[in-house]
Amino acid sequence: VNDLSETNVAGALIIEGALKIVIHPQIRIETPRSADLAVIILKSPIYLTNSISPICLWPANNNFVDILGRTGYAVGWGVNEFGSYSKFKKHIPMKILDENSCRSHFSNNFASGNYFCVNNIDRVSTPCELDDPFYIKINEKWFLRGLINIYFFSPSDNKCDVNSPV
Predict the structure, then answer these.
(1) CB atoms near residue 29 (< 10 Å)
(2) What pLDDT score does 73 carry?
(3) How many helices and strands in the chain, by DSSP H and E?
(4) CA-closest candidate to residue 93, choices 62, 146, 136
(5) How far apart are CA 149 and CA 166, in angstroms?
(6) Over 90: is that where the pLDDT of 148 sits?
């Protein structure tokens, strides 16, 4: 679903059932959230289309040096370029920040190794929902690198702050 006002989505994927659901072994749902995702092993195959494409899971290493400063993307609903909440999903280019930048914004909610920060490049729009995916392209493959688990609200207008990292 890309438009929150849609009630009947043409070409929607219907999953008839799962063989197994594998929840991340280090899931933490209290603040700060961490590893709150699962892999669903399906009973039948999914066929790729224009709106369904594969993504790889990130390798086990947490070395951020290789991706520091690179651009990835977050997809989800959030504040749009007009400063209001968008009813359409946004595809937002975001730059991976260094650990010191993360600490200056998140202090107590940042634990190196488990978290990293990204900042929107255009400073116009930002994701504003928990669990929006963040992915990056490396050697012509897309990798799911993380989920948006923390974001800031602007104190002046009570909206997601486009100038703060997530």
Answers:
(1) 8
(2) 92
(3) 1, 12
(4) 136
(5) 7
(6) no
Pair 134, 156: CB distance under 8 Å? no
CA 150 to chain centre: 10
Name the token pair of 154: 């602007």
Contact 133, 48 (CB under 8 A): no
Task: Give the whole-angstrom CA distance, residue 106 versus residue 150.
Answer: 9
Distance CA 23, CA 113 (A): 20
pLDDT tens digits, 94-142: 999 888 877 777 766 566 566 788 888 877 777 776 678 899 998 899 9
Output the average pLDDT for the chain: 78
Angle (CA) 91 94 96, round 5°: 150
Is 89:2 a contact under the CB 8 Å cutoff?
A: yes
Q: Is the pLDDT of residue 8 over 70?
A: no
Instruction: Return the amino acid letter for 159.
Output: K
Do 159 and 83 meet the contact criterion of CB atoms below 8 Å apart? yes
- pLDDT digit string (tens) for 22-34? 988 888 777 667 7
CB 76 within 8 A of CB 89: yes
Note whether 133 and 57 are within 8 A (CB). Answer: no
Give me the residue label for tokens 């989920």.
147
